[in-house]
Structures are given as C-alpha cells and as structure tokens.
Amino acid sequence: MIDIIARYWPLATTVLVGVIAIVLVGSVILHKRDESAAIAWVGLIILSPVMGAIAYLLFGINRIRRRAKRTRSGTSAPSDRNPALIANESMIAGMPDSNGASYARLRRRLLDALTTNPMVAHNAVQVLHNGDGAYPAMLAAINGAQNSVALTSYIFRSDESGREFSAALSCAVCRGVEVRVLVDGAGQMYSLPTTSRMLAGLKVPFARYLHSFWPWRMPYLNLRNHRKILIVDGKTGFTGGINISSANRVTQQPPRPVRDLHFEFSGPIVSQLMEKFADDWAFTTSELLEGEIWFPAAEVGGEVVARAIASGPHESINRMRWILHAAISQAQIRICVMTPYLLPDEILVSALRLAAIRGVRIDIIIPERSNLRFVDWAARARLDELLVDGCQIWFGPGPFNHAKLMLIDDDWVLVGSSNWDPRSLRLNFELNVECQSSVLVSELEAVFEKEKSAARSVSLADMNQQSMPMRLRNGVARLFSPYL
C-alpha cells in the first residue's frame, strides 16, 4: 500500500490541482463581470494553480455581496403594513413638466426605475448645521415623544453627547414611550465603554446590527449600517450625515471637531424613513414594528417633494452609484457636490467628465484634510482626470467637513449618509433622500457657496507640480481605494 501511495501520489495531486483549477476558472468566467479582472484571475490560476487558487479563494470571491443577499433576503416588507402610505396615496407626487423638463426626464425615466419608494408631496425640510443645530432639535423631539422613538446611528459614542441622548431615551421609556435603538456592531466600538453597555444600564431597548464576538460572524469592515435615522411618533424624522458624538458640537471646540449637515423632515416622507428603520430592526431582532404608534396617518408638512432611497450590498445593482450616474447624465446647468471622501470609480469619473464636456458647470468641494489621510492621498491621484475636462475642484477649510450634498440645476437635491467612495456605494447600507424644491435648493446652494468662498481652488497645474514621491504615494493609495 505504501509503495502504491508513493508511486501515484504525485499524479493524484496533479489531477486534484488540475480539477480545482478548472472549477475555479469556471467560477471566474461565470461570476466576474469585469473582463480585465476575469482575465487576470484566469491567468493567475492557470500559470500558478496552487497559489492562484489560494489567492482566488481568499480574495477573489465576492462574499460580501453574497453574504449581504443571504442576510437580507428574508427581511419583511414593512410597506405592506404601512397605513400611512396606504391611506395617503393622494400624497404620491405626479410632478408636472412645469417644474423642469430636465427633472421630469430624470425622475420618470431613471430614478423611478432605480428606486422602490414613490415621490411624495407635502413635506417640510429644515436644514440643521452640525451637532450644535441638530442635537437640540433631536433631543427636543425625543423629550416630547408621546408614542414612539426609533433611532439608528452608525457611531453612537458614550461621551457627553451620547450620555445626553441616552438619558433622553431612558426618560422616554419611563414615560411609557415605545423606544427602539439600533447601533451598528462596528460603529459602537468607536468609544469605550460601548454605547450598548450604557443603554443596557439605562434599560433602553436596543440591538446591535451584525454584531458577534466570533470573527467569522462579525465582518468589522463590511456590511455596516451607515444610516442615521431618528423618527419620533412616526411624524417627525431626522436623517443626514451626523453621528452622535461630541465632536459634532463645533462651537464647544472639541479636540477634533467635525462639521456636518443634518435634516429634519415632516410629512409623508417620514413614513418612508420609518419603513427603513422597521426593516433593519426586523432583520436584526425579528420584531415587527406595526401599528399607528410607528406608522400614523401622514400629515401635510410643506411644499417639498421627496423620497427616501435605501441602498446596500444585498441588491443586484449598485443603486446609489446608478442614481448618481443618472443625476449627472440629466444635469443641464450645474452640478454641486460636497463630500468628505472623493473616490469615484471609472463610471462616475466618466459621467462627470462627459457632463463637463457638455458644458455643465461642475463644482466639487472636498476637505483639504479629512480625518483619513490615506483616503486624501488616494483622492488626489485622480483629480487631474476631472480637472482636465473642466470640473472645478475645491479644497475646503477646516474643521473637517463630513457633510454630503449634491445639487443638480435649480430643482433637485440629494442628501443623506452616502459618501463618494467604494465602501459607501458598494459595501455599506445607506439611506439618502432626494428632494425637489427650488426653495430648499436655494438654501443649500447658499450653504455650498459659503463653503466654496472659503475653499481653495485646485488647478491642473497644481496637480502637475506635485513631486514624484507625492505622485507615487497617491498612486499607491489609489490602488487600495476599493478597500477604503
């Protein structure tokens, strides 16, 4: 027997490695949509079957999207039990052409096909600046809650601001208000002791999104719930880019201040925000949030037409990337983008360049220095591609501006939690709101112009004058942009 094994094991090993290589090549051909990536993996597997197979099994299979699909596929659909939308179908917007033929084409042909929620009319939106403006409004809403409070945040620090929110939530529980708090399993680790421990001590009902002590069940970097939502009594909603952290209270001069924008909503749009929270809560805890305390009949709030747009890696398309591309493609006059991280892929870079070539004025504001230097380096590696075709790039001043904002012409705005980077557009669960309102756009345009007036314009000559070591540094950082 030993002689037989000694004689035939090299042949058996060769056959086994060959079969594995053939199977993996087939997997590449079937699942890799990018031709260059597919050719690279096939070549590596064929030229080095053992190392190529190991590398593909570790890094080539898109487990992120598959896992996201698996974890989200059984989630219930709160819209089926949402009386607010069922009872207020008259509030679903049918936008007339008088509001702009460009926007009509954008909404009807593109965004309606890319989103699941309808546009709803009669909403009011209030712009809140930094934690100094957002936190008092949010805490006042929680303190005035009569029926329900639903809160989710990516980062919920256990600092002074976190303790203030926790105390308000605890008081609401003591008043008999139904409270649910969802904290991201990775985001909670931004402070010690963790917020979950603080909430548990105050007996506030909470859950941790995709959290586990076992590493193989806790993907710390991927599948994060990056949404920031607060809904009170199903009638007042808050969303945007602000986490719960004392760093956002800029006027108090924290050690590392963070500027940001948040938004308070009233009207039918709040039901769509509540739907998304209920979806995430049901997935995490299996508890269905139903009834009028969570989904009351919608009330008329104002003149803004809006819809909530949820996105995540469980979807068959990169929804937010497609929506950004659609918005860019329909712009006629100008595009204004404010984002803390600018790492667009080839599709979005091409869309921006083509829009600039068409004569659309494009202004993009990014921080001169963000909280992630490596990301700053990666962003600078591709700025010349945008500048060469006429896009205007601006480096915003400190403190670090974490705001996310996109304006199209004079009638369309997108706000929410998504950044312009691969992690946000592909790997995180995000929530954004698109709005149509010339008044709101004018207000946010003033915010944008104020930031731009204090920013530093970046030219193609500036990029070309960078030293070779800086260019190499930025280029190396760009190679890691899918993981940033």
Please supply descriptive tags for the structure shown above.
3 domains, Endonuclease, Chain A, 17 strands, alpha/beta, 44% helix, 484 residues, globular, 15-stranded mixed sheet
Give structural notes.
The protein is of the alpha/beta class and 484 residues long. The chain has three domains: 2-61; 77-98 and 118-306, Endonuclease, Chain A; 319-483, Endonuclease, Chain A (2-Layer Sandwich), CATH 3.30.870.10. It is 44% helix and 19% strand. The protein has helices spanning 2-31, 35-47, 49-60, 63-72, 83-86, 101-114, 130-143, 160-174, 195-201, 269-285, 319-330, 346-357, 373-380, 383-387, 422-427, 438-453, 460-464, 468-479, and strands at residues 120-129, 148-153, 178-184, 206-209, 229-232, 236-240, 258-259, 261-266, 304-311, 334-338, 361-367, 392-396, 400-401, 405-408, 412-416, 430-436, 456-458. It has a 15-stranded mixed β-sheet, sandwiched between helices. Helix 1 packs across helix 3 (49-60), helix 6 (101-114) runs antiparallel to helix 11 and helix 13 (373-380) crosses helix 18. The longest helix is centred in the first third of the chain and has 30 residues, at 2-31. The radius of gyration is 24 Å and the shape is globular. The termini are far apart. The mean pLDDT is 85.
The CATH class designation of the largest domain is Alpha Beta
**CATH topology grouping of the largest domain:** Endonuclease, Chain A
Adjacency order of strands in the biggest sheet: 4-3-2-5-6-8-1-9-16-15-14-10-11-12-17
Structural class: alpha/beta
- What Rg is obtained from the alpha carbons, in whole angstroms? 24 Å
Write down how many β-strands occur, each being a DSSP E stretch of 2 or more residues: 17
- Percent of residues in beta strands: 15-25%
CATH architecture of the largest domain: 2-Layer Sandwich
What is the domain total for the residues?
A: 3
